[in-house]
Amino acid sequence: MRDKILEKAREMFLTLGYKSVTMDDIASELAISKKTLYKYFDNKLALVEEATVGLHESCLMMVNAVISQGYNPIKENFEIKKMFKEMFKTASSSPIYQLRKYYPKIHEKVMKKEMVAFSECLRSNLERGIQEGFYREEIKVELYTQFYFSLVFSIHDSPIENHKIPELEKEALVYHTRAIATKKGIEELENQLYTNN
């Protein structure tokens, strides 16, 4: 039952927003009593925290699944972007922005984990891109990891309407890739832009 509650809570928080969903709403959707809900979670804050940590872990697993496909580094970034677009297509607005606004302590905790996990993915992508000739050899991997991470998360950390986020993310990815790509990398970028239109 605990897992069912978490799954339903994650779905509702993403679709309707963290603030607007109540414990009553979740209990009603699951056709259980509030007493049953409180048996597993002391309050909404505890449920938000656990659901959000679970969402972060789920995202990381999906990113790793994309990485394991062995795409070239530029295609890999486009596939990850596509995965996030699909995952958050029903979200009312950016979950990161909502967390920061309504649950700042949970936001801070989750963002620390995100920084570590996704910075490692970005770093690995850049290093592989250099080795395979898609990115220029002289780029500073740590610096560009921070640049891109900051760029993407600044999109999610603002009150932008959710339907505008995928286009902004795409533009951020194109901007990032053009800044570091070799001629071979630019050709692959153009190929991805053509096939992902």
Query: In what range is the share of β-strand residues?
Result: under 5%
Domain count: 1
**CATH topology category name:** Tetracycline Repressor, domain 2
Just give the CATH class: Mainly Alpha
Q: By helix and strand content, what is the structural category?
A: mainly alpha
CATH architecture: Orthogonal Bundle
The CATH superfamily appears as Tetracycline Repressor, domain 2
The count of strands amounts to 0
Mass-distribution shape:
elongated
Mean pLDDT: 90
N-to-C SSE series?
HHHHHHHHHH
Task: Please state the CA-atom Rg, rounded to the nearest Å.
Answer: 19 Å
| Most strands sheet | none
| Residues in helix, % | over 70%
Flag low-confidence runs.
none
The tally of helices reads 10
Query: What is the distance, rounded to the nearest whole angstrom, between the alpha carbons of the first and last residues?
Result: 42 Å
